[in-house]
Amino acid sequence: MAKYDVVIVGAGFAGLSCAQAAAAQGVSTLVMERKSHPGATPHTTGILVKEAAQHWNFPTNLTRRIEGVRLYSPSLQSIDLHSPDYYFLATDTGACLDWLANTARSAGANIRTRMAYTSAQADGEFIRIARHNIQTRYLIGCDGARSRVARNFQLGKNQEFIFGVEVELRGVKGIDANHLHVFLDAQLAPGYIGWVVPGVGVHQIGLAVRWPAMPDLERFIAKLTRLFDFSSSETVSRRGGLIPCGGPVTPMTRGAVLLLGDAAGMVSPLTAGGIHAALAIGQVAGEALAQKFQGGTGDIEAEIRNARPNYFFKQQLRHVLDRIAPSNATYDRLIQQPLFRHLAQTIFFHQRGLFTWRAWQDILGWAQQ
Ligand SMILES: Cc1cc2nc3c(=O)[nH]c(=O)nc-3n(C[C@H](O)[C@H](O)[C@H](O)COP(=O)(O)OP(=O)(O)OC[C@H]3O[C@@H](n4cnc5c(N)ncnc54)[C@H](O)[C@@H]3O)c2cc1C
Questions:
Q1: Residue 101: which domain range?
Q2: CATH of the domain at 10
Q3: Residues 131 and 95 in one domain
Q4: Is residue 186 in a domain?
Q5: Are residues 20 and 120 in the same domain?
């Protein structure tokens, strides 16, 4: 029987970040990943906010810097949003995940692919994964929105979702490469948005809606032909998946079993961005686990709770938006309004502090006066 201090299920952003941080401090760490390699068939657009980009130093050939957001109303009027010194990174997401896996391996983590987790049982002070003949002191579920670890150990489950689909295309013409293009449309994207991302060597075009509705990407692309030239485009790949939008799950831990990232609902209920939180919380958890093995008495769950973004207000705003469900005519009117512009600016550019004094200064336009 192979013995580890920590077994992590899922080599996504949360799992790899946690593995890297734990292994770097000498914790014997195994990551179980069901895919053939961590970067195979990513399900995400992969945009990194500046805070994540600065912390993680992904190789520059795997990313593309984008300075601003162009926000379109349903009738395709647009406004440009920028914030001094702020930027996003489009990524070759599969390659970034493989790079992250190599970083974790270099720190000493064992990453085993084509190894699916199905179940585990508590066994005294250990947890036993009988199918793979493995025993561990801690089991960390980083296995995404529909976590099997959460199911097995009666932990909290995500209940609310956005469903997103995306194609990667080559050869689309007329897309301004300095902006993320974000589309509001109550009919095509009820509860969320459509997007066009000038990515790394491709354009990523996607649409997400409040689940259980299904996005009609073909209709969205047909609408985009009014703006961009698809006449010589070819599809490179398709991807999609569920994004939790109901906020953090409870309970997130039971004994020595812990959830992180999407499995724990650590995704902004408003922007649906989860990569930054997955990376950041993965690292906090990995370091807290290492301290535990070095004799520390800290409470891992409390450390994670303190470090994770506060989604409370974003969650409230999501519920308000779900309830009001603005019509296309409302969006077309709103996009002309300065207050709406400042609110949009704040949502896109204030990653952690939507309800800070600084954010409200921006919303009300006082910062510009
Ligand atoms: C269409 C779409 C677009 C998105 N765009 C963005 C964006 O641009 N920016 C952003 O910040 N966020 C975005 N998100 C959200 C973001 O992708 C997630 O929040 C993030 O990937 C969460 O990382 P994670 O490591 O928690 O989980 P995941 O990335 O879901 O990784 C889970 C890993 O666990 C593995 N796994 C699952 N079950 C098992 C099992 N039983 N055994 C072994 N392995 C298993 C999976 O194969 C996977 O590798 C998007 C999501 C979607 C669906």
A1: 2-44+91-159+246-312
A2: 3.50.50.60
A3: yes
A4: no
A5: yes
Q: Does 275 share its domain with 358?
A: no
Binding-site residues, ligand 1, Cβ < 6 A: 9-15, 32-35, 43-47, 116-117, 142-144, 148, 164, 166, 206, 240-241, 243, 261-262, 267, 272-276, 278
Q: What pLDDT digit, counting tens, does each position of 103-115 carry?
A: 999 999 999 999 9
Which pLDDT score is estimated for 362?
Answer: 52
Q: Residue 156: what pLDDT?
A: 98
For the chain, list the strands marked E by DSSP.
Answer: 2-9, 29-32, 48-49, 63-66, 68-72, 78-81, 88-91, 110-112, 121-123, 126-129, 134-141, 161-170, 179-183, 194-198, 203-210, 234-244, 253-254, 257-259
Per DSSP bridges, beta strands 134-141 and 257-259 are: parallel
- Same structural domain for residues 39 and 123? yes
On whether residue 190 sits in a domain, the answer given is: no
In this predicted model, what pLDDT tens digit does every residue of 19-66 receive, in sequence order? 999 999 999 999 999 999 999 999 999 999 998 999 999 999 999 999
Q: Is the model's pLDDT at 233 over the cut of 50?
A: yes
Q: Which of 44, 113, 267 to mutate to test the pocket of ligand 1 (most atoms within 8 A of CB)?
A: 44
User: What domain count does the chain have?
Assistant: 2
DSSP code string of 312-338: HHHHHHHHHHHHH---HHHHHHHTT-H
Q: What is the mean pLDDT of residues 295-305?
A: 88
